[in-house]
Amino acid sequence: MGFRSDGLPSRPSLMTCPSTEEETRTLKPQHSSRRPKLHQSQPKVHEQSDSDPSPSAEILEAACNASIPGLTGVSNFTVFLYCNLFDGENGSHDPEVNHFGVDLHAACSDAAWYLSAAEEDFLWVHVCSEFFAHEFNKTVCANSTFWLQHAHQAEATRDYQYLNQSSIDELCLQLSNGVSGGSPPDATEDCLTLLSSKTLTAQDFRRCFLPNNTALIASLCGNNSSQMPEDGSWAAEYCSKVTPNHSHGAPKDNCDYSNWKAEHFINTTALEICSSKAGLKDYICKNATLYLTLVRKQPLLLDYCLNSEEKQGTKCILQKLFDMLPAPYDFETSQLCVNPLPILQEAIHKLTLCEGVVDERTGWLATVSYVLRVLDFVVGLSAGLEEGQREVRQSLGQAILLSSLQDNASFWATLQPEASISVLHTVGVFLKREQNTTLKEDLLSCFSVCHAFKYCIVSHASILLLYYHAFSFKGFFPQQPVLWDLIQKEGNSSALRFLMQEYLQMPRESIRSVVMSAEKDAVKRFLSHVHQSWDQLQVETIQVSPKEQEAMETMTAAFIHKFPRVTPELFIDLSQFIPYMSVSDIMTFPASLMVNESVLLAISDHSSEMKSPQKQAFIKRLLQSSVAGDVPSWPPHFLSAILPLLPHLPVSQFQQLTSQQLTPLMEMLGNSSLDATRGRHVLRTVLGRGKNLTSDNIMKLGVLICYLNSEDLQQLLSSSNLSPVLWQKLAQCVSEGHISASGRLSHWLGTALKSLNASILSTSAMALLHGIVPQMGASFLEPLSSNELLDLVTLPGMPTFPPAQAFQILNKIAEETHFSANTLCRLKPLFPGLGPTFLRKLVVLESTPDCRCWSLMLAHLQPAHRAMVHLALQQALEGTSANITQQLECLLPFISLRKLMSDLDGETVLRHISVYKHMPWSHQQAQMLFKMIQRTVNITRESILDLGRIAGGMSCEWLKLWVNESGFSELLQFITKLPGGLRPGLRKCVVVELRKWPDIDLNDLDPSFAARLPLTMLEHLSNSSLISVLDYVRQHFIDFLQLPRHKQTALAEKAIDVLGISENGLTGASMDMLGPFLPFQDRDVLAHIDREALKLRLEELKQYCLLSDTFRQIAALLTERSMLGDPKTWTAGDVEHVGRLLFTLSPQQIRSLPLGDLGKDTVEQVLMSQWLWKSSELGKACLDLKGLREKMNDLTHRIVKGRWWMRRGPIPSCADIKGTFPSAWRSYQLNLMKKKELKMCVEFIGQDDTLDAEQREALWMELRPVYKPVKQLEPEQVLELGCIVTEMGERELQAVNLSNLAVVAHLGGLSGWNSKKVRF
């Protein structure tokens, strides 16, 4: 019936049907639909002799001598080839020269011909690939300029389908693989033989490559559905000769339909006036050619013909319907009333074979629509339908409905987006005018049955309907969305699910238009239905693609913005979208909404899907409600209702919760995600100090066990009867990050668990231990096999091992197995111990290289390790594959310029430009490649667009060549948007040219480039451009930190202006808008900050990069009475609250803290907050706080100095050192450590690069007896000593075996060497 997954037949109209002799040829297996069809060649027995030429010969001769402008349906190039053969045979050319071959050879060598005519002449493109393969390959396949010109031509014309690139790609692929593309489809063997033998005559060409006589005459003379030739022309004379009834006169009578033109038939007024004219309806509805042409222009003719009210004599209904089919079947339709099934079967069979000269999808679709109706009627003839017949009829009803939409493009899967307008128009008109609700619901049902219908005809229709619903809503739909109302009325969750899926594929602006253009009542009804059906929709909210996440966020924002004030009822209907609500939208909800019980229940139900910033926004908005009251007054039932939000209650407010409020919530809070600051407040408030803790009662605390006093837990861990449940829970605390993996409690836990046998522990138990394993030492892992080690160290969240342990583990793995480069990427915790012994076992599996992983791994390695790994990967790749492209993909940007110069040239780069253009080249590599290409071809302003990131290597001189060109602005937009940014020299060149040409609109520049413009040029940016710059900087704040200080200040000031923030008082909302720009504001701005709002946002402030020149201002704010007050009065909760902000205080203020009352746990927590910040990407880019080391010493001085009676201070244990930091202790204290404690702690101490020479020397003096003789030291022992090695004597260094590159790489990174020792 024509339903094919690969699209419509290429010539689907039903004007004529093939003869019996032709059916055999038509039923041959079809070739790929991508290839062209030759015109059906006629059997030679039907050809006219040369002495008795066919009627079409005159037409072709007229085309050759320009008596007619061309042939409809035949390309000019095909006519050109024929005419050259014709002229040659008539003596116009040298008869010895085969002009067909010469001309075709020239065309096959001409790139311009492929670009200008290849769409309509794709048959000849195929012939070129077969018979002129060398020319085709050189001109098209291997010619990058051809593809560049093609892309620019498509861009300029906005016609992306004018050249069938995918088919040419296929031909090129066949050519490169040495596989014949096969003969053009449907070409008879004699035509191909003549084509290759160079004996092709004009008569043969006409038979093989041109339409038959009837088609040529019809295309010239026209018919009832096409334009007639003008009177007096050669064509008019010819047509009057071959078609005696040919007439051009205007109708003498208004209702003389035999002389009407097409516009008369589609004029509904004329049809109404002439409705009584006998035979008019039969003339329209039974003339296949006229009907197919008219119905495309006026779809109403479908009903005009189908719903005929005229009496048809005694014909049965089936005969009436079949007589309307626009296809001339050779049987008496009256037989249908006697025995319809055999005849109907034959008719449908012929429908697949019919072919004519008119190539109209609409006509074919209309015919199929009628046949579907006939089938539906035949199936309905049976009395008492069986279940199977009901299903068939249901599917037929769906197909009939969709085919009734005249422009329905869903019948072919190759639909292009730009083809949707007419479909959408028809769908819109159908839904607007149709009064039959059942029929509308039938259309809706197509959404849910598509996946079950064998020949799915609805998916594209539904997609287009949705796009139309977004773009053309008001033009064709009533005042409210018809589709939404239909979905709600039917209650079909499958249809709604399909609808939501299609919305997620729409552009963001389109989604917003759908919602904002609808009436509020319609949106409310739709939201209510979505809410009620949400569970059946099976929407995934946890693991969604970035595109779907963005679409859901856009849809959610549109729904919220549709209503100025969200009511509790509306919020409930919106509740399924809570995980996609933005912080700014949440903060616009009425504050009173946050105390509504139904609203809080909805938030609680979706809390597991929410992100922390969303929960923080909800709780902040709740605090702004006057109904909520003060925190200490919150009743138990209210606290239970907001329990999922409690862990995100600002610390200053959380610390106001009382023992009476917290005690009933202990069990629930133990199962929440409380952090250390809030958790310790709960324990201090509820349990107090001195409470008798046992292994039994602390297990009821849940996550709160992580925040118990370390000394209390140490007593339990040192017990001879250590509870497995206790150590597993504490190990989980470490693995989940609630306890520092390198602090005191981790040290005590690791010591207690060293006696465990790793070989007998379950997989789950080992997984629980993964955060504490580095504390237990490499010896704990010795019983494990290589595979078990790999499984353990590649677990998510595994901390980095010290170099000595990492070295031992890697060697253990290398002893037993080879490993792939992809596996190496996952061994990041062991990178400090990398060495050549391990890397020799590296293999590269050619089939599955994870190149992105390799590049990221190389970027994170230290220089010496990076060199070793790069060399190992390169050697492994060269041994596996000589493919330089694969090596480049995997190892950029770490391949040397010398290797690139030796392995690449301009032609190679251009040949693989589709791959190379996206590679992350360094600035130097891009410069070199650009020069390579420039030496090979002339790079134009148009062709550079195809170079991608290589374009960043252009020289300033090349850029200046195009300054005076009209497209210079577009060129600037392109290069300023290149990933990775521009190198400093090129950026400076662009700025210089921009200064010379003030007419260039700076607002067109990419925000990443505009952020680095000089301040004088920033002044010329519009507010919208400045907002884009600020958004970019906020998302790439590390780039901002690399700007000069004066430019940072200027951008921070711009943020105040463009965001509309008053300098007279920074409110909480203003601080939220400024975000990381807040610490970069002027002192006067910070002085007017809202103190209460700042107190609620101290946690956010801790995550910002702080400037040394704002320390005094921030410290003054923190110590104000309305904030935290004098540091002398600060409690442990206050210190935990400020965290690393404590180091903005002066040394005197830090020393004034009641350190004796704070406790070692609090000091450790503050130090840990600073180290965690410094280890983050933003922390690494932010400059160290001024005087940080001195302030850290001031914080720990009470611990290090000890009680007042200790003249020389306490002797530290390993736990003491890990609770502070090694360099905090004086050299004599380190020298007095017990040997056991020092040996246990040496690896941790050796990693502190802030130890001074005196401290390192004292340590080595104490450790020398343990490590002598030094000439027998193993590599792991040298690595274990770390920076202490720098204090070895000269003779000791000479004796140490430093042949292992892993050791050399580690020692080379130490900074404590003097110049003399380095030479050893």
TrEMBL record:
Residue ranges of the TM segments: none
Keyword Glycoprotein: yes
A GO BP entry: cell-matrix adhesion
Keywords noted in UniProt: Glycoprotein, Signal
Region (Disordered) location: 1-56
Residue ranges of domain Stereocilin LRR in the record: 413-448, 481-844
Top-level lineage group: Eukaryota
Keyword Secreted: no
Pfam families given in the database record: Stereocilin
A cellular component annotation (GO) from this entry: stereocilium tip
Record-given protein name: Stereocilin
